[in-house]
Amino acid sequence: MGYRVAVVGATGNVGQEMLNILEELNFPVSQLHAIASRKSQGVEVAFGEKTVKCENLETFDFSKVDVVLMSAGGDVSREWAERIGKAGPIVIDNSSAFRMDPDVPLIVPEVNPDAVKDARKKNIIANPNCSTAQLVVALKPLHDAAKIKRCVVSTYQSVSGAGKEAMDELWTQTKAIYGLGDATPKVFPKQIAFNLIPMIGAFRDDGYTDEEAKMWAETHKILDPEIKLTVTCVRVPVFVGHSESVTVEFDRPISPDEAREILREAPGVLVVDKQEADGYVTPVDAAGDFAVFVSRIRKDPTVENGLNLWVVSDNLRKGAALNAVQIAQLLDETGTIKPADGYRSLTV
Q1: What is the CATH number of the domain that holds 50?
Q2: Same domain, yes or no, for 228 and 263?
Q3: What span, in angstroms and rounded, lies between the C-alpha atoms of 134 and 148?
Q4: What is the domain-level CATH number for residue 166?
Q5: Is the pLDDT of residue 174 over 60?
Q6: Host domain of residue 118
Q7: Could you tell me if 324 and 127 are in contact, meaning their C-beta atoms sit under 8 angstroms apart?
Q8: How far apart are CA 341 and CA 264, in angstroms?
């Protein structure tokens, strides 16, 4: 017996990863529906060894599924998520549309699983920003051991966080640099190949971008509203994998060795931290992995009780699709959703 699952946005980067991870984690799927826009109706996507034809979002009957994994962008979520929730299933939404809604839990299962108790308020659970997810997984065990007072974060975010067209632009511009095409930016405001762009999202009146604001607002909601947090988000010419340089100030002394031991025992974290040429993790190393990797743990001598960390994760996995499927597992484990009678074998 399993669950009737719909994946909305099944043709996108994250939607395809959701399908992959449902299979990899052996989530009990009895019936799988791939949902997309009208123009993608009939397009086939892979689910394990099978293929599934996409169904039309506008005509699909969501009352016949138990859980919906949604990654079709904020506009689609704002139009559809509440309507789908009212039809009965719980929507796990990957967009920013409902993250700060007080009636919608914002969940990273390793960090705040108890928030699932509010899942039925709107039948919507929000998935955090990809950079926030990996940050709070690394901070939670340290915060439990020695309360965090302040955090300074600089992100180095891959182009996959901006979608397929962004990945194509990096590839096209990289070839163009060597005389094989046009390097004119179309997706990003400036050239991304062999470059860095210190702006993700739109600028706010305070000079920060909305991507930066998301990180501190979501960290406050998930972890602790008392943590002072400042963020700079940078887009880098990497295909997959977000990296973060994190400076943390605690309310008591905590040594690098103590932090390593705490993080080694933490769920979802892998510590790779040797003071040698390959003793740290890069985005290439993290791609395709489930873990949040922490490296370069060292004392920050410029503040009292400070540490510096290097945090890396696959943004399409833990930053999006994996976290969504882990939320679905949490719904199953807590009995928030129950398998439907009459669906005992996988059908697609």
Answers
A1: 3.40.50.720
A2: yes
A3: 16
A4: 3.30.360.10
A5: yes
A6: 3-128+321-333
A7: yes
A8: 41
The 3-state DSSP class for residue 35 equals strand
Active site annotation includes 130:
yes
Same domain, 115 and 198: no
pLDDT digits (tens, 9 = 90+) for 259-290: 999 999 999 999 999 999 999 999 999 999 99
Q: What is the spatial distance between Cα 232 and Cα 200, in angstroms, rounded to a whole number?
A: 9
Structure confidence at residue 345 (pLDDT): 38
Q: Are 293 and 311 in contact (CB under 8 A)?
A: yes
Mean pLDDT (the chain) is 95
Catalytic residue among 33, 151, 233, 242: 242
Q: Is the pLDDT of residue 172 over 50?
A: yes
Return phi, psi of residue 230, to 5°. Answer: -125, 140
Options 130, 143, 151, 233, the catalytic residue? 130
* Bridge partners, 293 (sequence order): 270, 312
Q: What is the DSSP string of 228-295?
A: EEEEEEEE-S-SS-EEEEEEEEESS---HHHHHHHHHTSTTEEE---SSTT-S--HHHHTT--SEEEE
Task: Please give the angle made by the CA atoms of 94, 96 and 97, to the nearest 5 degrees.
Answer: 105
Say yes or no to pLDDT of 119 above 70.
yes
Whether pTM exceeds 0.90: yes
